[in-house]
Amino acid sequence: MPHRAPRRFMKTAPGACDWEQCLLMGSGEPTRARAVVSSSHKQRKPRQEISACLKWLVFLLNSIVFLVGVGILALGVYLFIKDFREVKLVDIILNPAILISIFGFSICVVSFFGFMGALRDNIFLLKCFAACVFLSYILVVAVTLVFFTLFYTDTTEGLSANWLLLYAVKNYHTNRNLAEIMDALQENLECCGVSSIAQGYRDWNMSYQFNCTNSNPQPEKCGVPFSCCRKSVISEAAGSSNPLLPAMRSLECWQNALTKRPGDLEHDIYTRGCLQPLRTLFESHAVHVGAFVALLIVPVCISVCLTNILAKQVDHQRYLLEREARRNDRRRKRDHNRRDQLNSLDLLEEGKFNNASANATRPRPPDIPPPLPPIEHVPRKKSRNASSSPTRKPKSAGVENAAARRKRTATTTRTPPAAAGPAPTPQATTTNRTHQWVLQQTDLVPQKSKS
Questions:
Q1: Residue 95 CA to chain centroid, in angstroms?
Q2: Which of 161, 164, 239, 446 is deepest in the core (most CB within 10 A)?
């Protein structure tokens, strides 16, 4: 006898019922059968495809960057409000407060996309974060290339460091931001003017405020900015006992500087231009700038890759949820169809029970046997023995024809078997026999042959 697997290891077909369900259905318990059918399909949750570690790592990193961006934005707004000045289109680049505010706001927006996309499992925000990070890195690379181009280009025409410094000298009196930038460069780099190594200070003759033309009404005519004065002159004047000496010495160092020779001004102001010291400073830090930009690609690539991985996991998890929802819909429809079938079976069983009870209560009719079919007599034409009686005459042809016509008439007028009446009584049977004998005697019905 073959070995039979235990019940807990036996599997049924997807559309078939278990033996308990079939037994319940056949035993007339549809309610319990429906409960078994509905409980057989349990709601299965799809597997979790989103890595919790990756999700919260992206969220925390972007949250920290967002807080840093908020701090930078607050600092820029504070500096702008503290030293409020008229804002022009060029001030977006020249005003440090505006630059700091724009930088902080950009960090806030990009990091907001990152941590909100990770928190809410939003694919669109995650992809926006990755795209913004990549575009920001491209922008940093482009700005670095522009700076390298500016400082390594010696042309006096076109975009170069020389052109930018001359533009700042010419518009020194019109833009406060340009004036502050030039003063900071001349003080920190110990230079005055732009290009010339020995007579760079003479570039201020192109300024509307310091030129030596007769049409210049400004009191700073033929002078240079105060930032061109040497720090040693100011410190010596500050150490004297006369409190007015520093102010007087600072006025003497820059007034009428454009009318003097470089040898007479070496102890009072800086005579070399700022282009060469600025280029030397950039060249000394060019390697560091390039290395920083090159290494910046590492965190950018890491953040973009992690964000894309998280977005793919979210997308796959969404696909699994949608697939499970479709399966649940099909399962509900299948259960609904099964319930309809069970209900129809219940209705059929109730109908059979009602018919059986109605038949049981209906009175039975009396047992009457079915009517017997009538006996059909097929006439047979037989030869009759000649009569031995001498007095009897043979029949004529006319009599024979009349007898044949009567036979045909009797045959056509005879009642069909389907329309036969009730079974004949004994008296009717006797009458029929007498009538048959009379007909035989009159030669209308042939006699039976004697064996």
A1: 43
A2: 161
Question: Does 19 have pLDDT greater than 50?
Answer: no
Question: What is the three-class DSSP state of 229?
Answer: strand
Residue 387 CB neighbours (<10 A): 10
Q: Where are the domains of the chain?
A: 50-154+286-315
Is the pTM higher than 0.70? no
Residue that the structure tokens 């909100």 belong to: 116
Length of the chain: 451
Handedness of CA 181, 187, 192, 196 (dihedral sign): negative
- Is residue 253 a contact partner of residue 269, using CB atoms and an 8 Å limit? yes
| More confidently predicted of 353 and 263 | 263
Q: In whole angstroms, what is the distance from residue 316 CA to residue 393 CA?
A: 122
pLDDT at 222: 86
Query: In the 8-state DSSP scheme, what is residue 160?
Result: S
pLDDT exceeds 80 at position 363: no
CA 318/CA 260 separation, integer angstroms: 79
Residue 32 pLDDT grade (very low, low, confident, very high; cuts 50, 70, 90):
very low
Tokens of 106: 């950009």
- Phi, psi dihedrals of residue 408, rounded to the nearest 5°: -65, -40
Rounded distance, CA 354 to CA 360, Å? Answer: 10
Closest among 371, 369, 447 to 415, alpha carbons compared = 371
Paired with 269 in beta bridges are: 229
- Distance (Å) of CA 197 to CA 150, 271, 273: 19, 7, 5
3-class state of residue 269 by DSSP = strand
Phi and psi (nearest 5°) for 154? -100, 5
Indicate the range of 71-80, 138-147, 188-197 predicted with least confidence. 188-197
Query: In terms of DSSP H, where are the helices of 210-296?
Result: 231-238, 245-254, 262-265, 275-295
